[in-house]
Amino acid sequence: MQILKSFLMNLSVLVTFTYLFNLAFKYIFQNASSQVKQTALIIIFIISGWLSIIFALKGQSFTLFDLRAVPIIFGTLVFRNPRHLLVIGSGIAVGRLVIADITPQAITGSINVLILGCLGALLVQFYQRNALSYTSKALVSVFSIITTQSICIAAFGALPTEYYLTGVFPYTYPAGVLVSLFFVFIINDFYKEQLRAADIRNKNQILYRQTRDLRRTKRELEEKANQLMQSSKYKSEFIANMSHELKTPLNSIILLSQLLLENNEDQDRDQESRYAELIHTSGQELLKIIEDILDLSKVEAGKMDIIFERTSTEDLIEMVQQEFEPMTSVKGLLFEISTASDVPVVLTTDVFRLRQILRNLLMNAIKFTEKGKVGLSVDIDRSAGSEGSSQNIVFTVYDTGIGISSDKQQFIFEAFQQEDGAINRKYGGTGLGLSISLQLAKLLGGALSLQSKRGEGSRFSLHLPLHPVEHVYTD
Fold first, then answer.
1. What one-character-per-residue DSSP string does 186-255 give?
2. In this structure, what are the phi and psi dihedrals at residue 69, rounded to the nearest 5 degrees?
3. Following CA atoms 368, 412, 424, 398 in sequence, which dihedral angle do they give, to the nearest 10 degrees?
4. Greatest extent of the chain over all pairs of C-alpha atoms, in Å
5. What is the spatial distance between Cα 372 and Cα 101, in angstroms, rounded to a whole number?
6. Whole-number pLDDT of residue 226
7. How far apart are CA 462 and CA 446, in angstroms?
8. What percent of the chain has pLDDT over 90?
């Protein structure tokens, strides 16, 4: 009866620990690293061994029955490192000495557990070298460890050998085997549950990544669709604007040419000269529109010729001043040009394309400025480096015009786009100048940037290398 009570007590303790072990791994150690899980397992196995010793069936001065070997059996089925079994065996053996007084029985009990830990380590090595099923490994571990434990108790245990073999062994051996097999079944079921949980977690992670990728792809597709819609809208507006921009000079040319062809006698020479001048102006406007379209096509097709040559910085600035000072004077604007003292006298670049960029920027500045000033400053970007080869020359075109709102600044450098795209907009133009200027700046090895605020004017800064890395010459 006493053996049955002890058996049920040990069984209850191990069942409770197994349940707690299951809960811990399900809710606490689920996302922990493998090292943390292994450490937790070792501690749980050692503590369960201690409790088995505490609740063991005891005689007058010796232990009749406990389940201290069961954690070692578990270890042979759970761990892949033999050293873990040695740690478990040593931990339970130390607990055997701490829990009870240091007596000959306690010492022999600790030695028995150490022997079982060494046997568990050997079994783990054996399983690593031989591919056995879980059932086969469980049977080998249970019978070998329980049998070894019984042999150790009979050989040098505290119990008399004859008494143990006839009065204790017939009950404790089958009970130990049955309990061990029972817990092996529980561990197997837990192991399968962990595999299922891990599989579900992996599938959930895969589904989460796929869902995230699908959402990202959806956003990208929506952005592309919006860009296509915007591009289509801007191109439609561009075509409509071009029909407006082209029709105006063409109608002027046709009408004035017709008037000249009629050659009425009452037409004087001055009137004919005025007609010819208007025809010439309309032709220049038409030519400018066609050049813009052709330049954009060349840049996009990679057919733009860039010729780097040495040019005078002073001559360049003087030409800009002679070209644009009369325009600003007509509109009543102040035109400023400033040059830093350390700007080099000679600049290596494609002067024709540089003038084209500056012309586009200054024409826009004059067009969108009703009062105030328009200016050009030339400076050296000292933040680019201390060596001349790494410094940039900066041409900044600024004005006090209408400015550009922040939400429109990212679009104005794109082809066919303007801040105001309606046909009846106040300011004319093709909307290609800034896009062409940006592409030309890149071809020259530089960059074009913008600082602007609605109603407070704009600053376009053209950064060009003083000494381009590569000179591209064309015949």
1. HHHHHHHHHHHHHHHHHHHHHHHHHHHHHHHHHHHHHHHHHHHHHHHHHHHHHHHHHHHHHHHHHHHHHH
2. -80, -20
3. 0
4. 151
5. 101
6. 82
7. 7
8. 12
pLDDT tens sequence across 28-75: 666 667 777 778 778 877 877 777 776 665 555 555 566 778 888 888
Q: Which two tokens stand for residue 266?
A: 């009452």
CA-to-CA distance for 260 and 274, rounded, in angstroms? 11
Q: What is the DSSP string of 365-404?
A: HHHT-SSSEEEEEEEEEGGG-SSGGG-EEEEEEEE-SS--
Give dist(CA 310, CA 347) in Å, integer.
Answer: 6
**For 330-359, how does the pLDDT look when each residue is reduced to its tens digit (9 = 90+)?**
889 999 999 998 899 998 898 888 988 998
Contact between residue 111 and residue 155 where contact means Cβ atoms under 8 Å apart: no
Tokens for 297, please give them: 């096509």
Q: What backbone torsions phi and psi does residue 412 show, to the nearest 5 degrees?
A: -70, -20
End-to-end CA distance of the chain: 111
Beta-carbon neighbour count of residue 228 at 10 Å?
10
